[in-house]
Design a protein that fits this description.
Bound molecules: lanosterol
Strand content: under 5%
Helix content: 40-55%
Number of helices: 29
Number of strands: 8
Largest sheet: 2 strands, antiparallel
Shape: globular
Oligomer: single chain
Length: about 750
Amino acid sequence: MNKKALSEVHLTREEIFQWWNLKSENGRQVWELQLPDELSDIKWDSEEGRELLSAIDNAFIYDKKLNTHASDKILRARAKNDSETSGEHYNIEQALEKGWQYYSSIQCEDGHFAGDYGGPHFLLPGLVVACYITETPLAEPHRTLITRYMLNHQNDDGGWGLHIEGQSTMFGTCMQYVSLRLLGYSAEHPRLAKAREWIVQHGGAEYIPPWGKFYLSCLGIYNWEGNNSLLPEMWLLPRWLPFFPGRYWCHARMVYLPMSYCYGVRLTAKDNPLLQQLRSEIYSKNYEQINWVEARNKCSNTDIYQPMHPILIILYKALNFYEKKNLKSLRKKALDFIISYIHAEDEQTNYIDIGPVNKVINMLSVWHACGKNSPQFQKHASRLKDYLWIAEDGMKMQGYNGSQLWDTAFAFQALHDWENHKLFASSYKNMFSFIEKQQLLQEPPKNEEFFRHSSIGGFPFSNKDHGWPITDCTAEGLKSLLKSKIEVPEKEERSRRAVDLLLSFQNNDGGWATYELTRAPRWIEKLNPSLVFGNIMIDYSYTECSSAALQALMLFIEQYPDYRNKDIQKAIQRGISFILSRQQSDGSWYGSWGVCFTYGTWFATEALSKAQKKGLYNTEEINNALNKAGKFLEQKQNEDGGWGEDFQSCVEKKYVHSKCSQAVNTAWAVLSLIRIEGFEKAAERGIEFILKNQLPNGDWKQQGISGVFNHSCAISYSNYRNIFPLWALAAYQAKALKK
Ligand code: LAN
C-alpha cells in the first residue's frame, strides 16, 4: 500500500480501538492486534508503518484530568451499546435487566469476566527493564502503546506516583523516566525534561527507594554497593527461626527470592552509551562522586510509607559488613537453593508466577542462570503477554495475570441473587462452568519442599494456570459451587475438599489470612525493608478473608450438616469472634483490599448477619455490632443518597470522603444495610442513587479506583462498577419481595 492510500483510510479512534481483540482460553487473557486487510502488510519500520504507529499513538492520547482511571473502553467496545438516550430512569427490575444485558454482552467466550487490573506504576517499568537487559524486544505497537500509557499518566509536576491516583514519587518518576529512555524517547523530549527536573530537584536517583535501587542496579545505572544487603544466605538459616524467609508473606518471599539472586550474582546489563547517558541524567551530582554507602539508606520523603526501623538499620550494618567478607562456598550454596526455588515457582505457575514483580525478576534470574536460549527463559518470555492489558489510556502491566475467578465468582453470585436470573441463563451457565473449572484438585510439584500450603480444593484469584490458592477466592468459589443448582460431577466431594482447605487456613487468632497461615510473629514487620508498602512481611488475618471463609462454611454446613460438623461450628465461633474484635469504635471495619471502610464493613456485616440468622453465635453481641455498623454507614451517607470514599481512606486509616458519591461504595453500603434491622430508609436512598446513576445502556460510569494493597498502593477492579450495583439491586429487591 502506498502512502496516499494510508492517509485516505481516515482512521477514527474507535476504529483503531476495534483492531484489538482479547483472546481468552480458560481464563488466559491475551490481547491481539488484528489490522484490517488493507493495512496488514505494512512493516512497522517503513515510512507507512511509522505513520500508522503515529495514528495508533494519537488514538490513545488520554486526558487523565477527566478521570485518571480509564473506563476500559477497548474491552467494552464489544458491548451491546444501544443508542437509547432517554433521560428517564429505570425501576429496579428494568435496571437489572438493562444492567445484565449490557454486562453479559462483555463476558468472554470462556465464561469469565475480564477487566483492566492495572493501577500501580512500578510494574510496567520492571517489565521494560527486564526486556531491555535480556534483549527481548517489545514488538510494535506494544512499545508505542506502553510509552503512551506512561506519558498519559505523568502528573502536572512532571512526576509519577506509586499508582495512577498518587502524588509524584521518586520511585514512580525515575522508573518511568528510565523506561521511556530505554524505549527510545530522547532526553530532550519536553515531557522527559520535566520529569528529569522533578528527579533532580528531589535529590536525584540516590533517593529512590530500595526496589528502585534494585532495578537501576540491574541496569548498571546505580551501583550495587548502594544497596543494603539482600543476603541470599538467609535461605540457609535454620527454619525454626521466626525470621526465616520461608515464613514471610508469600508475595514478599517470592519477590525477595529472585532479588537476592540478582544481588548475589550482581546481575548487571551490558554497558552501552544510552546507559552511560542515563547515569548522567538521573542524579543531582556527578555519578563518580556519589557516596554509595551513604546512598543505601537514602529515600525521598515523597515515597516513604513506613520509615526504616532503627533495628533494621543496625541489622543492615552487620549484613553489609558480612557482604564484604562473604564466604564463596556459602554464597554458592545459597544461590543454588534460590535458583532451584525460582524454577519450582516457575513450573508450579506455568511461568506466570505469583505476581507481576517476581514474574520479571524471575525471568531476569533465569536468563542469567540458564541463558537466553534455554527453554526456561523462552517459556518465561512467552508468558509476559498474560500480564499486559490495553485500555484507552494505553498498554499497561496488570497487578496479576487478571482477576478472572474473583470477578466471575462475584458476578455469578450477583446474578444468582436476582430472582429473574433465568433471563440470562446462558451467561449464568457459562460463568459457572468457568468457575468450576478453576478449582485446584492437585498439589503443585514440590509444594512442601518450597514452603507452600496445600492447594487441593482451593480456588485462585485469576485462573488455574496460575494455581496459587487464596483463602477468600476459595471461599467465593465454594459459595458459587454451593449456590448453583447446576450439576457438577463430584460436587459434594469437591466442596468437602474446599472446606478442608478453608479449615486448614484458619489462624490461631480465629481469622483467615490471604494465601497461607500467619507463619511468624508481628514484630517481623519491623524488618520491612520496602519503605513504600505497609504490612508486607507476614500474612495477617483480614476481616475480608475471614468473612468470606465464614460465609462459605456457613453455607456448607447448611447443605451438608454431616461433614466435620463440630470442626466447622468451632471454626465459625472463632471466626465470628475475630470479626467482632476488628470492629472499630465508630462501628466500621477497615478494608485492606478495597476502598475502604465501606468495603470492610460490607464483608463484616455479611458474615455477622448470616451467623445471626442461623443462630450460630451470641445474638446480642451480633445485634449490637450490626447496629453500630448501620449507624456508622448512615452517618457517612451523602445528601444525594450515595456513599463515596477516597483512596486516602486506605492510607490514613480513617474515612475520607471522595469528591462525589460512588456507585461501588454505595452498593457496598446498601448490601450491608439491607442485612441490618432499622436502616431501610438509608438503603432505599442508596438504591435510588444507584438507579439514578445507571447509564442508559445499563452500565455505570467508571469512577475512582476501588482496590488497594499494602495500605499505600491503589489497584483497579474495573468490573466492580457493574457487579456491585447489580448485586445491590438484586439483593434489595429480593429482600423487598420476601416481606
Ligand atoms: C491481590 C489481589 C487479590 C487480593 C484479594 C483476593 C482481593 C484479597 O481479598 C486478598 C489479597 C489479594 C490476594 C491480593 C494481595 C496483594 C496482591 C497480590 C493483589 C492486590 C494483586 C497485586 C498484589 C501484589 C502484592 C503486587 C506486588 C507488590 C508487592 C508489594 C509484592
